[in-house]
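Case study B.
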Amino acid sequence: MEPVRRHPQPESSPPPRAGRVSELVAGLPPSGIRRFFDLVEATEGVISLGVGEPDFPTPWTVSAAAIGALEAGRTNYTSNLGLLSLRRAIAAHLARRYAVSYDPRSEIIVTVGVSEAMDLVFRSILDPGDEVVICEPCFVSYGPTVRLAHGIPVIVATCMEDAFVPRPEAIAAAISPRTRAILVSSPSNPTGAVIPRATLAAIHDLAAAHDLLVVSDEIYDRLYYGPEGHTCFAALPGARERTVLLNGFSKAYAMTGWRVGYACAPADILAAMNRVHQYTMMCASIVSQEAALEALRRGENAVREMVRAYDQRRRFLVDGFNRLGLTCFEPQGAFYTFPSIRSTGLDEETFCARLLAEEKVATVPGSAFGACGAGHFRATYAAAMPELREALARIERFVARLR
Amino acid sequence: MTDEQRIQLLEIVEVEPHTAPAELAVRLGLDAVEVEAEIRRLEADGTIRAYRAVIDWDRVEGEVIYAFVDVHVRPEPDFGFDAIARRIALFEEVHALYLISGGKDLLVVVRGHDFREVALFVAEKLSPLKGVDSTTTSFVLRKYKKEGELFQSALEDNRLAVTP
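Model:
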């Protein structure tokens, strides 16, 4: 009889673990947002400034295109890399906006949101114990995604005094022989900070000096309110060959639930990512891909209108917080404000919990996005003006009581 | 104030006419006094014609009915369509009036309290006007969208209360 084939056993087997869940997963920190979500769910009549997605509906031309795709029977798998028509449209879009050139056949992959793309990158480039430099405060999943790929996130803290822009020397200090990549996110969730072009160039210089990749999450590139326009990392001189550019449709086109994003990278990295993707996801939903294609073709006016509205609300909310003594640096991108609560004497967990309980306004404690987010809270302006007005009035009452 | 800022000011005033000048100023990154002066100027020069509410009259039984009346007219020498258009526009039953391209010349939106009132207006006042060749009346049966507002089924906000 054929013996059961087993993988070779290691010399010394690991100690037996306690539960059924792997130590890696059991060791992931619970999301600080999740806890707050449960609190908010249990409260009636809440105005939420805690939402990380646009309040606008998906432009109807996009939804209509998806319905059309269904009616035409387009319900099959696509190529692992995604519809070639969509990849071509993405390449044209990036070439037009940022003058970066990617081959749609070998350098672009369509993913299930940027989250999947991020997972693919780290699984593709990290061996156990490899390090990724991450600047906090940041999107909650960066660290865990690195850990799930058996990597080690090395945190660089940023602060309000620097407008939450990382200092290149702090990044340099975080680089070790095990570093494989620097993760850059601009504009940033949760701070709305934009990293100036000169700082991005300095980060690129570091990456080049240490032969590192730069994973650039540019999901908020279109939600940018500064005068000089978003800098695409791959468009910096010499940067393209060491950049993994991540972007998607969720924020710019109000398409969060469609779950469609993309990654652009040199062909060797992209092929590795596609290897992981083909075994785990196969492809992004074809309906969402068709919708994304329509967004690129006919979504521009909608983007412009949404950006206008966000920009007005941004000024309104920042002005309001500053008037209340909740010092708020001016965020240049995304749809978040990240005010300081130093003047209230409370810590951010207490501030947000009491604001919710006493005035029914949901915000997110800054520490949910990294330890250096302490002393801040995140409030989004992806909410209609009447809601923002009411929320600000409630926060004003709350802050007045604290004094 | 840049042209872009002026356009945004008008866009806000169009849908949120009650917004205080101080808030308009903050949202547009302008000075409140400047915004107030600009609004007065835009009102004075007729750019801002009126501030109106969008009302769903269907919720008030038997109050308002609309008809779209396509009108074929003979333009007059020297005056073109303007003279006849003015004679039509002055009727209080005429809610809106446009010169249009296509098969007809004028589109008259007539507003009344019931079908009969509107029909009689078209038969007794509009059709007999000198210069009016023919009319085609289409009564509005149901309103789906007006002034950018969805009337039958507004979109819901289904977002979770807190997301990353």
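The mean pLDDT of chain A is 95. The remaining cases will be described in the next quarterly update.
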